[in-house]
Amino acid sequence: MKMKLHKISSSSIGVCIFMVVIMISTVCEAWEKMGFVDGARITVKVGNGEVTAEVAKSNVKKHSGLGERKELKAGDGMLFVFDKPNNYSFWNKGMFFTIDIIWIKDGVVVDISEDMPDFETSPNYTVTPKAEADFVLETTSGFITKHRIKIGDRVLWDN
């Protein structure tokens, strides 16, 4: 019995390789975000600064965020974890203190917002980033300036 061999074109091989790379990328991104659990505290390093951040992954936790808390201690923050990149807006509902906000995509700072006012000073104040992000870090006001955080800085965490 003779087997018939078929010639595979280089374009077919290229398409197959492309599809495998896309699948691996998608699985790696999903795997990375699986390690985050609501309420867990993790260390986040951004630029030359470091924050112990509480994770907000569920919609309920993301909606409440830091609202209704009386204070945020220096060195603390909240890391919002999103399933896919987007221009996620943040507002100051229930906020009793000012904060800095850092938008992150693929482990890199893509936008920053300093000194978001408290609710009493500026009710319903909203900030929208200029770039899509899949993580957002809220920190104490002044963190961005103190640690010279800028767009393009690498971000690492210990989840």
Please name the fourth-level CATH homologous superfamily.
Protein of unknown function DUF192
How far apart are the first and last residues' alpha carbons, in Å? 57 Å
Could you say what the CATH architecture is?
Sandwich
**Percent in strands:** 35-45%
What's the CATH class, please? Mainly Beta
Description of the molecule:
The chain is an alpha+beta fold. The protein has a single domain (37-157), classed as Protein of unknown function DUF192 (Jelly Rolls, Sandwich). The protein is built from three helices and nine strands; from the N terminus they run H-E-E-H-E-E-E-E-E-E-H-E. It has helices spanning 10-34, 59-64, 143-146; strands spanning 41-46, 49-56, 76-86, 90-91, 99-105, 108-116, 126-127, 133-140, 155-157. The strands form two sheets. A seven-stranded mixed β-sheet has the order 6-5-8-3-2-1-9. Strands 4-7 form a two-stranded antiparallel sheet. The longest helix has 25 residues, at 10-34. The radius of gyration is 20 Å and the shape is globular. It starts with 9 loop residues before the first helix and ends with a strand. The relative contact order is 0.20.
